[in-house]
Amino acid sequence: QVEVVESGGGLVQPGGSLRLSCVASGRAFTFNFMGWYRQAPGKERELVASITSLGATQYSDSVKGRFIISRDNDANTAYLQMNNLKPEDSADYYCNGAFGFSGPGRYWGQGTLVTVSS
């Protein structure tokens, strides 16, 4: 059974930084696609950033230049470094994994809450 677990959310002031982590565990496998999605109250879930096992990355326009996604393939772990955070970045952040090279896949974490507020 595959399990996806996020961590690293919290409360941060505008302009601050947070680093989210996502660990996928279970039987021996590699997610070729790992992505971070977010959902704010009353809004649809949206893709924030994604990365493939080959290192190809994708970012939403709203976070380009501020967020950096990375991964450790051996550890099946993905990270999201979030810098210069804005109040509009506040949301539940979800990690997603897929065996293919595009997402979202069927494997979701439980989410971690990010709140940007003074």
List the helices and strands and how they pair.
Layout: E1 3-7, E2 10-12, E3 18-25, E4 33-39, E5 46-52, E6 57-59, E7 67-72, E8 77-82, E9 91-98, E10 107-108, E11 112-116
Parallel strand pairs: 2-11
Antiparallel strand pairs: 1-3, 3-8, 4-5, 4-9, 5-6, 7-8, 9-10, 9-11
The assigned structural class equals mainly beta
Q: What is the overall pLDDT average?
A: 95
Strand content: over 45%
Count of DSSP H/I helices: 0
The parts where pLDDT drops under 50 for at least 5 residues are none
Q: What percent of residues adopt helix (DSSP H or I)?
A: under 10%
Radius of gyration: 13 Å
Which outline best applies?
globular
The span between the termini is: 41 Å
Number of strands: 11
Largest sheet: 7 strands, mixed
From N to C, what is the helix and strand string? Answer: EEEEEEEEEEE
Describe the protein.
The chain is mainly β and 118 residues long. Helix content is 0%, strand content 51%. The protein has strands at 3-7, 10-12, 18-25, 33-39, 46-52, 57-59, 67-72, 77-82, 91-98, 107-108, 112-116. A hairpin with an 8-residue loop joins strand 9 and strand 10. The chain starts with a strand and ends with a strand.
